[in-house]
Amino acid sequence: MSDSLTKTVNNESIQLMVNTFYPKILKDPVVSGFFIEKLGTDIKSEIWQEHLLLLGQFWSLMSLGDKGYTGSPLAPHFQIEGLSREAFEQWLFLFHETVDEIFIPKLGLFFKEKSSDIAQNFMRNLGI
Fold this sequence. Notes:
The chain is mostly helical and about 130 residues long.
């Protein structure tokens, strides 16, 4: 195991995870189009930065119980045409890959299990 892996889940490590993950999303042929359509290609843009902050808040709520996120994570997905099981599976693959790069295995396992549960719930609710 690398000594550089994060051993603590806190807002900083969560934001690192989010900021490491989404550039991969923009490069991926299966999922990038969904994000580019809504947020554009410039991850440094204001709209992307707001989204990354929101996602950091979401994961802080999921992992730490922080109350900074007050949105509805499923709702925007109903507005995205063409979402498929393949897209969710690719999102999960890239997310799990990123988690392995950021966190020690014990902490990474939490994010992998939680993200898989969320994806299954989303797919069920979206009917895919």
